[in-house]
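Task: sequence design from structure.
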């Protein structure tokens, strides 16, 4: 699982000290790998001689640290967080494939519990119209199924369905977004962390997202939709509409004072 180049290794012990699973030891001046690690890659990242690799992964994807490239100034990052908006008005143009790939990379590189890396990212753009129609067709039956357990949502979904039925241009669930990104995983925290990075990257690309809990509930309550998406048995941790904003925000929005307990 881990390969250590003995000619490059200098036995500095940095990998041993930083290994969260304790699976690397320095013996006779060289690092030695012990089986059953979680392949987190800390040893790859910390090695000063680039002596460690994980053959199962694409090592060409590994980047060397460059302060000018990787350093994010705190004030810039905080400004970006404050400036983000939930987008409900999108341009008609689609997100380019390379742009989507970079956005999804931000999710792929997000930390996961025990380095499981078991988030599945589903991007609907070319087939979004077909999925949108299929979802609207499912809404009445789905609302009936949940009316006892979640009456408020059942009433809301039926209302949205009637409005869309009477005026197909009224797309009160999808907001005419050109793309939708779903994150499916058994660990909701993993999905939430990935979603945050995906949104930040989308904003950096000049795009934006809307977290849509209504869509997520509809899809989770519909076996037909989950089967169509190829995730019949995996929970959805997040559903985001994505695209280029059709509005321009000129400043950050105010927020309440932080509720912080200092001890």
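Answer:
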């Amino acid at each position: 699982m881990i390969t250590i180049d003995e000619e490059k290794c200098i036995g500095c012990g940095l990998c041993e000290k930083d290994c969260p699973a304790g699976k690397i030891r320095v013996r006779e001046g060289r690092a030695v790998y012990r089986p059953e690690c979680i392949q987190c890659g800390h040893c790859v990242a910390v090695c000063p001689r680039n002596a460690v690799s994980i053959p199962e992964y694409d090592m060409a994807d590994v980047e060397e640290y460059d302060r000018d490239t990787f350093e994010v100034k705190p004030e810039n990052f905080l400004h970006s967080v404050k400036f983000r908006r939930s987008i409900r008005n999108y341009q008609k143009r689609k997100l380019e494939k390379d742009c989507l790939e970079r956005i999804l990379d931000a999710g792929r590189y997000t930390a996961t519990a025990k380095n499981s890396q078991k988030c599945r990212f589903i991007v609907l753009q070319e087939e979004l119209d077909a999925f949108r129609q299929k979802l609207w067709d499912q809404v009445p039956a789905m609302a009936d199924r949940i009316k006892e357990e979640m009456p408020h949502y059942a009433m809301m979904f039926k209302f949205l369905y009637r409005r869309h039925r009477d005026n197909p241009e009224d797309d009160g669930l999808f907001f005419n977004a050109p793309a939708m990104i779903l994150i499916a995983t058994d660990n909701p925290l993993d999905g939430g962390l990935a979603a945050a990075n995906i949104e930040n990257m989308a904003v950096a690309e000049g795009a934006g997202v809307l977290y849509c809990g209504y869509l997520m509930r509809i899809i989770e309550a519909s076996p037909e939709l989950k089967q169509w998406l190829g995730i019949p048995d995996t929970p959805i941790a997040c559903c985001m509409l994505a695209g280029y904003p059709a509005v321009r925000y000129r400043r950050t929005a105010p927020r309440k004072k932080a509720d912080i307990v200092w001890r």
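Residues 3-61 form a domain with the Alpha-Beta Plaits fold (CATH 3.30.70.20).
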